[in-house]
Design brief:
Helix content is 44%, strand content 16%. The chain is an alpha/beta fold and 289 residues long. The protein has an eight-stranded mixed beta sheet with strand order 3-4-2-5-1-6-7-8, sandwiched between helices. Strand 6, helix 8 and strand 7 form a beta-alpha-beta unit. Bound molecules: adenosine-5'-diphosphate (ADP) and magnesium ion. Magnesium ion (MG) binds next to helix 2. The site of magnesium ion has 5 residues, from helix 2.
Length: 289
């Protein structure tokens, strides 16, 4: 079977075992936070399309909209949730009542939008969330966190909870600088030593490698002492823009487009390499204290 065959099979939800290597770790859930520092670089699109791709392959996936106060995963998916995480935090709803079903059977925990009150969670609110969230772990294989822009405390907490952090940037110096700043804070203040890198909106094959090398050079020069692993790159693709306007996922609507192909490739790598571990809700709480 050639690689293209493998990808086609994967997209039909047949083949997940790419190398036969088991994922590392002993827990049963795989958490991945997708963060960028800068807004508008493609976090939400990547998370939602990755979720769809994994779900198409039979995985149970929860998309956790961690962009508290400005959540928009549901908009990208064309969903209109009645309730959101804010109702969980306030105790009005249980988490099961808030989670909604999205395309391809993905589950979505909407964040809510337009409430500054929850854009920074306090210890009590975190505890309320943690108790509800822990009950969910048995229900999913993957929890993907769509992290908000910026370098707020919420960003740091959710990145730490997820165990694994994927930083997404494009090739613009502004996005690059913010990706670096985010990794710097997460490594220096939160002990995060390992990062996956996704380079989005590339125009050529080599762009991803170039950005990766440059980030490694800068982090070496400033002694961040971190490992940055290039997870993959995603081409600039008009179908992404089109699918956003249609409030549909490009992996669903335009599965043959370059961006969809790139996301499937990244999904295969993640299936092979993402360690299973408990989501670090306790670690998140300890940081809050
Ligand atoms: N690979 C891509 N090709 C073309 N446009 C893209 C691509 N990725 C993102 N975009 C554009 O960038 C916009 C912002 O993406 P989004 O995922 O909402 O970013 P973020 O969550 O980081 O703020 C999208 O609405 C889309 O127009
Ligand atoms: Mg977003």
């Amino acid at each position: 079977m050639d690689q293209a065959d493998g990808l086609r099979k994967f997209s039909r939800g047949v083949s997940l075992k790419t190398s036969g290597r088991p994922a590392i770790g002993t827990g049963k859930i795989r958490g991945l936070a997708v963060a960028s520092g800068k807004g508008g670089v493609g976090k939400t699109n990547f998370v939602a399309n990755l979720a769809y791709t994994l779900a198409s392959a039979g995985k149970r996936v929860l998309v956790f909209d961690a962009d508290m106060g400005l959540g928009n995963v549901h908009i990208l998916l064309g969903l209109a949730p009645r309730f959101n995480m804010q109702h969980v935090i306030s105790g009005e709803k249980t988490i099961e009542e808030v989670i909604i079903r999205g395309p391809g059977g993905i589950d979505v925990l909407p964040a809510g939008s337009g409430h500054r009150k929850y854009s920074e969670l306090n210890g009590e609110e975190m505890l309320a969330l943690k108790t509800e969230l822990e009950a969910l772990e048995a229900d999913y294989d993957y929890v993907l966190f769509d992290i908000g822009a910026g370098i707020s405390a919420n960003v740091m907490y959710f990145c730490s909870a997820a165990n694994e952090v994927a930083v997404i940037t494009n090739t613009e110096p502004t996005a690059f600088a913010d990706a670096y700043a985010l990794m710097k804070i997460l490594s220096r203040d939160y002990g995060q030593r390992r990062f996956r890198l996704i380079v989005n909106s590339v125009s050529g094959r080599r762009d991803g490698e170039i950005v990766h090398r440059r980030l490694e050079q800068v982090s070496d020069r400033f002694n961040l002492n971190i490992a940055i692993e290039l997870l993959g790159s995603i081409p600039y693709d008009e179908m992404v823009v089109k699918s956003v306007r249609e409030q549909r996922l490009f992996t669903e609507r335009y599965p043959g487009c370059g961006a969809a192909e790139a996301v499937r490739k990244i999904a295969r790598t993640l299936v092979d390499t993402l360690p299973a571990a408990q989501i670090g809700w306790d670690r998140m709480l300890a940081m809050r204290a």
